[in-house]
Structure formats: structure tokens, C-alpha cells
Amino acid sequence: MTESERRELSLLLEWNSPSIKSLQFIKLHKQLIYVFDNSPYYRKKFESAGVNPHHMRSLAEIEQYPTFDKDEERLSQAKSLQLYNHPLGMHITCDIRSVNRISASSGTTGNPSFQGHTAYDRKIMLKNFTRLSKINGLKPGDKVLMAGVMSMWVAGIPTIDCLLQFGANVIPIGGLVGAQKVVEMITLTYPEVLICTPSFARVILKKARDEMNIDLTRMGLQSICVYGEPGGSIPEIVSEISSGFGGAKVYDMAGGTGCLNPIFGSCEAQEGMHFMAPDHAYLELYDRMTKTVLPMVDGAEGELVYTALERECGPLIRFLDGDKVRINLSPCSCGLPGMRIEILGRVDDMMLVKGVNVFPSAITDVVRKHENQVTGNIRIIRKNTTPVVEPPLRILVETKGVLSSKTKSNLKDALELSIQRQLRFKAAIELYDEGKLKLEYGATGKQQMFLYE
Ligand SMILES: [Zn+2]
Question: Which of left, alpha, beta for 412 (phi over 0: left; psi -120 to 50: alpha)?
Fold first, then answer.
């Protein structure tokens, strides 16, 4: 990044500066008027809440607008499919013929939710992607092997679209071919950058090492860009992936549903993801229980509420996507200003064990502290999808290699004690020899943490 690019990026990242706040107000105001004037759905929704964007005078007034959640999105999309033969929802705000691409996100219930992109929306996405490249060092001409699930999922073809327009030298193999083919392609093309989920990066390393006898530390990979799972920001996983690929830098990235991802990305310092799109996404921190907006102060935890700015096709206004995050406002050692976030987990994945909120990522963190004896792969057994779980919570943990029965018994006790002390709930650990724990991946390539019995 040149000095002038750095200065320009720094100004944008100052999400709380008066100039960014006034830019956000102008864009938010325009966006709200756009949806109000173009969508009978939004007009009715706003009128029922007693708000009219034509009378909006300050950014703070956004808190008077109704939120939009996944259930509402699902119903709106089911209705438009029934009435108009498209799944983009009754909240679509543009002519269906100006939609240029339909993408999907996997829903936790198994039903995908859909997003439409106009040509202009694709341009905003490219702007965000280009900004991310300033943070993670991707350059036009870099040879990029795309090993994420490469389909209509938001992280699939839309990422390829951005990479091509950005000018990368793209090798679009896609993750569905399996780890072996990806390893073979690495040896045949020597990519500089690999894109995939962190769990798939680990599967690739294991396949090459244990079954193919291929040393991936010598392939010249410079960076591994990961997304979609908490692993990309867990230091132990980052360092395992980095050393497995010969010291390649690991960069995490994330989007916010409806906000034309990516909008968050980690830098070389790996100290959380920078929020890099305050001009394209308006964020609020929210407490779903009390339905209140929380102050965005250092260390605050809550659910993010996303509002897309400058979006043409069905922008989601105050969308509750279920991302629980912690805000970090301390200076990043890379020197860039602004806000960073740590994704704690999905609200949908949160379990309530004897009144204690537990995210799968927190359990993984505790298990990983015993890294000499465990691979880090876990599965959590649940009876149903309701959040309340009766202890002990059954957790399946994969050991490194095959341990003696005495070592196993000690490890089980140690893990249960660690969980009790650090997470304050009772777990029942069941250990599996390496390779014996069945891992499953969802349609988008994300590792499934829960196993339902
Ligand atoms: Zn940084």
C-alpha cells in the first residue's frame, strides 16, 4: 500500500469521525427514501412503525426504524416466489429485470435465503473487495487458487467475479473436488494465494501430509485468505495453517448479510478484523433480549444490526443476521485506525447451559489449549435445535494419533475440568482417535459443529 493509499484508507476507516458520520447520514437518508419510495413493502412497514424517511433529520433516528430478521426475510421471499416467481422477497426495490445475479446464503434451517445484485451492487462489492486487498496485500496479477465452495453462495461466484474484475490470475478449482485434487492443483500451478474456509485449509494440509506425502511448505504460497468460520481469527488455527503452508500469512475476512461483502478483514497483525466499509454498511450493536441499541464502546458485546447503504436490489434495513461480536477500539499494531470486530459466534448456535451462554467457538478455544494431545476437531451432541441444553453437554473430541487408555482418561478429566473452570458448565467428553471422528461440511463448505441424535 502506498502512503497516499494508506492515508485515504485511514480516513475511511475512521467510522466515528464527523466526516464519516455525515457521509453515513447522507447515504442512509437516501437509502431509506429509496426503499420507502420504491417498495410498497417497506412503505407499509415504515408507516406501521410511524416513521417517514422524508422527515429524517439525524443519524440517531435510525433507531426508531423497525428491525428486519431472518423469519421476516424467509416469509417475504416465500411470498414473492408464490406471487411473482422470484425468490428475492416482497422487499425487492428494483425492477426484477435489472437484477444481474442471484446469490444465496445457507440458512440454519436448511432453506437458503436469496440476495439479488444489480450491476451497480456488483460494483460496490468490487469496491469493498479492492479495499480488502489493501489490508491483506492481494495484488492484480497474483495467482489465486479459489478452493472455497464455488457456486451461487455469496462467498463463491461473487468472490470469483470480484477476483476477475480486480485483475487476479484466478485458478477457479472450487472446494467440491475434494482436498486431494486441490493439493494436486497446488503442485501443478504454484498459486501465491489460496482462498478457502479455515477447516478446509486444515483438511488440505492433513491430506497432503498423511496420504500424499507432499510438502506444502515448499509451494511458495504467500497468503491464505479464509472466511466463514471462527477459525480464521483463532491464533492456534492461524498458526497451524500458516506453518503448514510454509509461513504463509493467514488473513480472515467476513461480510454482513446484505451489505455486499466483504466488509471486514484482518491485517498482518491478526488482531481482529477491521471494519472497512463504513460508507457501504451502517452497523449498530444490539441486544435482542431487551431490544435496545448498545453503545459501540471498546469491549462491548452484542449482535450486529446491518443496514446496507447505496444498495439497489432489496437492501435490508436494520437486519438482524445473528452475528454476535465483540468490539475492539484499541489501536491495531498495523497502524490503521477504526473499529475491529471479533466474531464470537452465531446467535443461532448459542446454547444456554444452566443459564450460561455458550458458543461452540468458546468450547473449541478451551479444547485447543490442550493442543499437544488434540487435533482441535470437536462435535457437540444435541437433541434438538432449541438453545436450552441440559448438562452435561456431550462433546466429542478428536485426539492426536492414538493415545493409551490411561492418557485418554487423564485427558478426559483435564478437558472436563478446563470447561468447568473456564466456561462454567459441566461437559461429558468422549475421545475419538485421530481420523475416527466423523466430520461433516455444510453446502457452503463450513464445518458442522453440531451432531443431532
Ligand atoms: Zn490491523
Answer: alpha
116 within domain boundaries: no
- Could you tell me the pTM of the whole model? 0.86
Residue 414 resides in a domain: yes
Whole-number Å distance, alpha carbon 329 to ligand 1 midpoint, is 11
Q: What is the tally of structural domains in the chain?
A: 1
Question: Which residues are CB-contacts of 306 (< 8 A; sequence separation ≥ 6)?
Answer: 256, 257, 258, 259, 281, 282, 283, 316, 318, 319, 321
- Provide the residue range defining the domain that includes 388: 351-452
CA of 266 from ligand 1 middle (Å) equals 6
Give me ligand 1 centre to Cα 336, in Å: 6
Tell me the CA–centroid distance for residue 192 and ligand 1, in Å. 22
Q: What is the CATH number of the domain that holds 441?
A: 3.30.300.30
Could you state, in chain order, the average pLDDT of each consecutive group of 10 residues for the chain (453 residues)?
91 95 98 97 98 97 96 94 97 96 74 91 96 96 95 89 97 94 98 95 95 96 92 87 97 88 93 95 94 96 95 95 92 95 85 82 88 92 86 94 95 95 92 92 80 87
Q: State which residues have CB under 5 angstroms from ligand 1, the bound ion.
A: 267, 269, 332, 334, 336
- Is 439 within the bounds of a domain? yes
Is residue 405 in some structural domain? yes
Q: How far is the CA of 346 from the centre of ligand 1 (A)?
A: 24
